[in-house]
Structures
1.
Amino acid sequence: MNVTNFDDARLTAVGLLAEVHAGLMARLQPALAAAGLSEVDFETVIRLARSPEQRLRMSDLAAQTGLSTSGVTRVVDRLEREGLVARQACAHDRRASYAVLTDAGRERLESVLPQHVQDIEDCFTGLLEAKELEAFLGSLRKIRAVVRPCATAGATSGDVEPVPGC
């Protein structure tokens, strides 16, 4: 495919998505930093908090965050030193372990969530009407299923289908 149209809507879509992501992260970062959390720290603890039993297999956490296994190990090591996450051995597979949110991790999340959610409301979801937000979330899920099929690894909610190989 030879594309010579620099005004191609596909280029605009990816460019806008990148700009919005960068802008959102810049707006959300100060509240996270005030709570002593980096973006990857927050993503890790919020994924644990939203998971069944507030825990995930390390391999599933890596798949959900898009980190390598060594990358997620480093993040969990750091969070474990801070007392926000603990490791738990898997009872039926000695090779596997879980990252588990601790009480201190829940408290840290609870301290940052009001401002974080307000920031999201102010510069993202609050700008959309309910039907727009619903359609936007559906579109994001459709795209995520293709570009990050393992992003829901370990999730057991009824609206998430397990992905083979994740």
Note: The chain is about 60% helix and 10% strand.
2.
Amino acid sequence: MSICMIPARGGSKRIPRKNIKPFCGRPMIHWSIEAAKASGVFSRIIVSTDDPEIAATARAAGAEVPFLRPAQLSDDHATTAAVIVHTLDFLKAEGEEPAVICCLYATAPFVRPADIRKGAEMIEGADYVIPVTSYPFPIQRAVRLKGEGLEMFDPSNYATRSQDLEEAYHDAGQFYWGTALAWREGRPAFGAGARPLILPRHRVQDIDTPEDWTRAEAMFRALRQGPGA
């Protein structure tokens, strides 16, 4: 069995109180905790937060909050890796040293227990397992605003057919499996030691702005009501 760590600081700016804001009838963090419990692969589900209200909400959903995160790891500049190492240090002080740990984001309502289990299977022999999904449009044909006009980032691809361009992927922003050693040593998450877990685009949505939130709730309801939901 492994450890799940859910980072959930209280200082979200673009969507205030994002981690516990109601999402389709439940506090947002509840969806991640429920998926972690349903995966059946974790001996402990620990929420790392600096916020007492988030801590209470997490405990009500069945997660542990054995500490409150220090202020220096709770500002806009704190990295996910630093928060994970802090949790590993806490566990080590308790006499528990997991070989791997899963960082599951609090704002990942689309995460599925089966994907978490698949990641657990894939981590053997790797530094990280990272869910990714493909871009819906070739990134090689991206444009920037230039004055009142447009300019391609890479004009050499102007005449290249879309189907002839290499497919590109991005981080799905749901969870990361990683070895304790990789986290502690700061090994690059997007490197030769990482394995991709490819997810379909319709199950991936960043939730960083109010517009994202509205779209995510619509997607979530559609997925739950659709065939095979």
Note: The mean pLDDT is 95.
